[in-house]
Each structure stands twice: as structure tokens, then as C-alpha cells.
Specification:
By secondary structure, the chain is an all-alpha fold. It is 74% helix and 0% strand.
């Protein structure tokens, strides 16, 4: 499968999932099933896609993935705290309410810690960054992907999501493995949920 096909299919599946409430009225079990199917399909598409001319390198070692994972986790929290500090200095009203303390259902936890990181990293970092990076310089793909990632997360501080998109793209590029950004995204979401 080509990167162009990957981009079309994964974007469609991601947008379909985001807008599924417009088509269906689903209970928690049905929502979990839908998420599972979409994530599984996106994973199948990823594994069937040629990695030629992408940031994915077959030589990425576990040591390199772990090293960049630790760096990525530190950068993720630095970005969050930095943008929270800056926006609080400029205008505290820019920090929208992101309290998730009441969201401890198994569905919320599974989606936040497992499904979303896998899906978002494969869509935004692998598909978008590489697809745009084949036509323009890779940094353009990273910035555009981060902007789109930010726009998909309107429930919180938008600059944090832009910064996180940049961090996840950076560690994917440096490690040569999308697994690095997936793992960092998972751990970061888990820590944020645990802290709230």
C-alpha cells in the first residue's frame, strides 16, 4: 500500500470515528467495539503500507526507542507546564477546563491510554508527517500535522496540543520508530489521568 492510500484510508477512519455519534447512538460496549475495530483497521493499514521514504527506519533498536522515549516523556511534560505557565501569565481564561477527575470508567481509560495514542500517532505522525514530507520539507509536515492535531483537541489548551504534536513528531523522527511516539503518548496520557 502506498503512503497516499494510507493517508486517505486512515484519515477517513479517524474522521468517521470522531463523527460516529452523528450516525449511531452507541452504548459503552458498542463504542468500545467501534474503537477496537477502527484501531485494528488503522494498524492493518500501517503494517501494509510501504515504509520507503518515511521517517520509519528498520534499524531502530530497543535501546534507541527507550532513550528517545524517556526524552520524549520529559519534553512532553516540559511543553505542558511551559504552555500552562505562559498562558496563565497572558490570560488565565485561555486555559480551558480540562478536569478529567470524574472520567474513570473503563471505556475512558482504555480509549485515553491505549486506543487514542495508537490511532493518533499512526494518523498524525506516520500518515500526515510522512505524506506531507514527501512533497515538502519534513519540518512542514511536522508543523502542519501538529496544527491539525491541535485542532482535533479543542477541549483544552490548544498550544499544549500543538507542542505535544511537535514533541511526538520530533521523537518519531529521532528514533526512527513510530512505536516511540505511541509509547510516550500512552505513558503521558496515563500519568495525566493518574494525576487528575
Amino acid at each position: 500500500m502506498t503512503l497516499n492510500q494510507n493517508m486517505i484510508y486512515t484519515s477517513f477512519l479517524y474522521l468517521f470515528l470522531l463523527n460516529s455519534h452523528l450516525f449511531f447512538s452507541l452504548n459503552n460496549n458498542q463504542t468500545m467495539l467501534l474503537y477496537s475495530v477502527i484501531v485494528w483497521l488503522i494498524l492493518v493499514i500501517y503494517f501494509k503500507t510501504s515504509k520507503k521514504d518515511t521517517l520509519t527506519k528498520s534499524t531502530s533498536s530497543i535501546k534507541k526507542i527507550a532513550w528517545w522515549g524517556v526524552i520524549g516523556l520529559l519534553l512532553s511534560f516540559m511543553v505542558q507546564w511551559g504552555f500552562l505557565f505562559i498562558t496563565n501569565m497572558i490570560s488565565p481564561s485561555l486555559n480551558r477546563n480540562t478536569d478529567i477527575s470524574g472520567q474513570s470508567t473503563y471505556l475512558f481509560l482504555l480509549v485515553s491510554i491505549l486506543f487514542n495514542p495508537i490511532m493518533e500517532e499512526l494518523v498524525f505522525r506516520f500518515s500526515f508527517v510522512n505524506w506531507i514530507g514527501q512533497k515538502l520539507p519534513i519540518w512542514v509536515g511536522i508543523v502542519v500535522s501538529s496544527l491539525i492535531f491541535m485542532l482535533m483537541h479543542t477541549s483544552g489548551n490548544l498550544m499544549i496540543y500543538f507542542g505535544l504534536g511537535m514533541v511526538f513528531s520530533y521523537i518519531y523522527k529521532k528514533s526512527g520508530s513510530i512505536l516511540t511516539s505511541i509509547l510516550v503518548h500512552m505513558v503521558m496520557n496515563g500519568i495525566v489521568i493518574w494525576l487528575n
